[in-house]
Amino acid sequence: QGRWYGRNIFSYFKKTRDLITLGGVFIYSSLLPLLFLSFFHKFFLFLFVIDFSFLFIYSFIGFIITKSLYAFAMIPINVVRGAGELIGMIESIKNNKGKL
């Protein structure tokens, strides 16, 4: 599902100009690349911590609203979904390279 969503995010953004959704997609999809890059330079670790903080705050707000610990289970779910979205965005750019 995340991969499909990632493939369509740019066309969705062109139609709606929904910056909040686009920002969320970039936050989730950048977690794993930033974690990987943090092994090579500490600046990426700093960016990863900021990125993860947004995700944690989002989950904490969900916990406050729902009073359910399931809100924190959304962290690994969103990391996996974000990886799929990243793959979808890369596929979208690759497939539309000649159409831009």
Structure description:
The protein is built from four helices and no strands. It has helices at residues 2-16, 19-37, 42-66, 70-95. The radius of gyration is 15 Å and the shape is globular. The protein starts with a helix and ends in a 5-residue tail after the last helix. The model has no long low-confidence stretch (mean pLDDT 86).
| SSE-based structural type | mainly alpha
Average pLDDT:
86
Unreliable stretches covering 5 or more consecutive residues = none
What global shape is seen?
globular
CA(first)-CA(last) distance:
25 Å
The number of helices is 4
Describe this structure in a few short sentences.
With 100 residues, the protein is mainly α. The protein has helices at 2-16, 19-37, 42-66, 70-95.
Question: Any chance you could write out the topology, listing elements then pairs?
Answer:
Blueprint: H1 2-16, H2 19-37, H3 42-66, H4 70-95
Helix pairs in contact: 1-2, 1-4, 2-3, 2-4, 3-4
Protein traits:
mainly alpha; 85% helix
